């Protein structure tokens, strides 16, 4: 078959955009007599509308609003209130669409203000109007204005301010905080609980002084401390320029200043949606507007009250006096319901992806009409990876994002930081690898290797990453010799990446050096990347890549919004302050909704964010006991539940009251709310216990759902490994029983066809194989990547049969010898995978060796220990709560080294011959080989026993567990040290081998484990006896063989204990990974790539143990 010449990586054509008229149709709804009364001309009074999820409460409010407008009432007097910004956006969109259906020309309905607002937007508007009135009155009377501009602070900004204040409290010793809470002041969880507690207090109008009084009255010191903190917080915010108010503070401020006669918005219609989710302060504000309003409708469903943890209370819905109650009855949603249990968390996500693609491809359900609902954020993260692999476009529901979690934003922030400080190597690599630098890990490695060669040719010593940083630094003048060498050495693609980064940084530096504002510099950096056009084109093309482009563009728009607001609040603030402001935000921050239409992508959303929404097909996944219901106490440190009960119900906090039943009831309401989002299809999934997994049990809510919909039991879905009796091609619908799960995507289809074609399973018929071959041929003719055998990695020829490039000598270190002897494939390929940071165990080992060397050579122990411990403390990246115990453990290791040194002197009466003794042994080149092998490294310590003048080799090990006695006898590193010392003595004229005197020259070689000490805190030792002359000769032959094996072109793989920790176990032919799953840090290694990686840098610089 002829394969079409279609490049997998070819740039798709820029799509053409054609504007078409939207298909707007007015939905037909049937309302009962009571509901129709709301739309009658001249309708007045106060109504309460209740109904289950899907009964049409929001739609009734929208139709009531349209009816009032059609009656000629002004739009400025009509207001629909929603508890949150997200729900207000959706109601506004529905209102606009139905108004356009009534009036396609858009000329009949006009309003001079928003007709749909969140309750906080309403409060802001009222406060702004009242503040303007007061300022005018004060100015008229010659008084100084007492109320300045007001700004609503985001949750992320407030969280950041609270954490900064808590850090200051901690640095001052905790002051007013109870002693038992002081260690937690710098912890993120403490700040989150404090913020939630303060929001609940502010919502109920408490002042700092009143909060302090409650703490003292009810003997709750933590409440008193929170009152002092609230006072400090309010004073800090008062000094921050514009009046920054949180949402509860905004409501209280509006209530305090509102004047019924002067500030009433003169409404004729007030429609309140989802009233069950309003907090008491919001309800109080709305009640001020109700008496003067002709028609008031309060709609909600107490069974959908799921925001008690945020202070919401359904009392406003249930207890407000009304003229008439309207019950909308049953739901208009009647989905088919499936419940399935899957045998593993990964399998569950694959099952979800399969169900989504089947709904889209087989049932023609648009992507945007499908949603996946989970209980928490951690479940969404895993789903995002699986859906992306299945080529499913997706977006996160809700309008709040954490900017610093987006790769594109992180790259831009690193670019800004490069203007005022030098980036670390890791930070600079992250800048280069990604959308800003335009590189990828493989290409960056190639570029760095090429630059290393350039530096060697120029006679310099700079690391390649530092050389690259110098080249892209716009403040540094070009050096002619460097440019000429780069022109000779780099290929066109590598030059392209270098020039792109230079152009981007030069544009940002030019704007910065011209005293441009933060927004000017940010725009110059962004514009120079050229990403806006590329992302726009990808977004218009749609699909999974288009959905990701959408999210990236949304993140960048939010970053520019944040920059604008930051400059507005702090005109003189630096770029550094802005970067720190964004990087330190831990909570999601809201973004402006600019979309006129919904994006065509699957919605991933948490259950709480699904309120007020509906989709054709909904998948509720991860319904596990312990996750759903999630029974952790909210605000447990501050006893928030008791605090709310005291304020709302007057219940003394000292009276023991269980909150478990109320929490369980709210969790049950939340689960039902999630399930009731589906109009046509509902799939609920959970994970059952797996043999190799922790115990996982489906939620109790699953049984309740099955009873509600008369489902006997959940369908059991299990994975079926290819090669079993059933053929995957015969499996059409994994809805229950045994099923081989796969995505209905092109890569999955090709993989299945290839597996059937190449399988050795005798149960697969020849006709089935031929059918798989025919389908692969059709796909290959269509130019689909992966269908043609030329694209199958496992069947392609090696790129070269030549050994890896090397210098005149192949130098080995003792650790490399040990690794090569275990598994050459792991030893060679594993070196190409660079850890993001130096592992802590390696750092600890280096410091222990350095300490032992310093003390052995006479350094003061106390001073050496202090310097070593300080260096270890600086290297810790674990949570601060773990630092004290880790440092104490490390100090114990150093004490064990001291004890060993002190114990050895009287016991062995030895003297130090050398510490950190370096060696370099060149083996003779065999006549039948072109490879000369050398061994070099360092011996930790060589002692001479005074009693018999024998030598003793010491090797300190940082491992926490000593090897066995038998393993020590076969330790390759000790054998390397014996061999090196033997060769050195021969070279000096002492020939211990000629008369078989080596065993009389060497006492032993020993492994010493300071981290694995005895009860007396003495390190455990493992001894290796002196090698015989024949063993030394055999070891030399082994070194020659290992050196030749390390060059390939074929690398031997062997199975052993090292496989558990191998970095390449997933691609090893003897590993247990089960599939070719190339780690992202290996980045498609092949022999030709190895040739380019293992260049002269390694052979010239060599490696030491």
Automatic annotation (TrEMBL):
Ranges of residues in domain UvrD-like helicase C-terminal: 306-612
One family name in Pfam for this protein: PDDEXK_1
Domain (UvrD-like helicase ATP-binding): residue spans on this chain: 30-335
Annotated keywords: ATP-binding, DNA damage, DNA repair, DNA-binding, Exonuclease, Helicase, Hydrolase, Isomerase, Nuclease, Nucleotide-binding
InterPro entries xrefs: DExx_box_DNA_helicase_dom_sf (IPR013986), DNA_helicase_UvrD-like_C (IPR014017), DNA_helicase_UvrD/REP (IPR000212), P-loop_NTPase (IPR027417), PDDEXK-like_dom_sf (IPR011604), PDDEXK_AddAB-type (IPR038726), UvrD-like_ATP-bd (IPR014016)
Signal peptide: none
Keyword tRNA processing among record annotations: no
Gene Ontology cellular component annotations, sorted alphabetically: cytosol; DNA helicase complex
One function term, GO molecular function aspect: DNA binding
Catalytic activity, reaction form: Couples ATP hydrolysis with the unwinding of duplex DNA by translocating in the 3'-5' direction; ATP + H2O = ADP + phosphate + H(+)
Enzyme class, broadest EC rank: isomerase
UniProt family annotation: Belongs to the helicase family. UvrD subfamily.
Name of protein: DNA 3'-5' helicase
Naturally occurring in which organism (per UniProt): Corynebacterium spheniscorum
